[in-house]
Design brief:
It contains 5 helices and 5 strands, in the order E-E-H-E-E-E-H-H-H-H. The chain is an alpha+beta fold and 165 residues long. The radius of gyration is 16 Å and the shape is globular. The relative contact order is 0.14.
Length: 165
């Protein structure tokens, strides 16, 4: 069976007809061609497929497409700001937290979800916030430093904008 679903992806309304057994990951990659969201394990263990759904970090390989009906989805492609990259993306580059890059989109979106609710997390809170994302290239030290730098940049940006961020 197929269902027609309506969702907002990166600020754009999207309507797709998709088989009921297909995942949100399938819709994003195969139907909408948003390939920044990666498929790693396919069972929700690695976090490579992480996106934000209504602001919360989810593993898109575990979400049936029809469960995303009416939801707001943010992928790595939607994180950019105008012509530039988001401060979180910039921080990952600045500290060298990007190696092969496969896990990076999921790590960045999990970082955004964490910093949206906890703008100044401790190292332990960062570790918990990213615990659903695996990286096979690093020892995580640079990733944790990237999250700490992201927090500082976003706090400064918020102060510079008079708290209107």
């Amino acid at each position: 069976m197929k269902s027609t679903i309506n969702l907002t992806v990166n600020g754009q309304h999207v309507q797709v007809e998709v088989e009921d057994n297909k995942t949100l990951l399938y819709v994003l990659r195969e139907m909408l061609h948003l390939t920044g969201t990666k498929e790693g394990c396919g069972i929700g263990e690695c976090g490579a497929c992480t996106v934000l759904m209504d602001g919360k970090s989810v593993k898109s390989c575990l979400v049936l497409a029809k469960q995303a009906e009416g939801k707001d989805i943010l992928t790595i492609e939607g994180l950019r700001r105008g012509r530039g990259i988001h401060p979180i993306q910039e921080s990952f580059v600045d500290v060298g937290a990007v190696q092969c890059g496969y896990c990076t989109p999921g790590m960045i979106l999990s970082t955004k979800a964490l910093l949206d609710v906890n703008p100044d997390p401790t190292l332990e809170e960062i570790k918990v916030g990213l615990s659903g994302n695996l990286c096979r290239c690093t020892g995580y030290t640079k990733i944790f430093k990237a999250v700490e730098l992201s927090a500082k940049k976003l706090i400064k940006e918020n102060v510079d904008n008079g708290g209107e961020n």
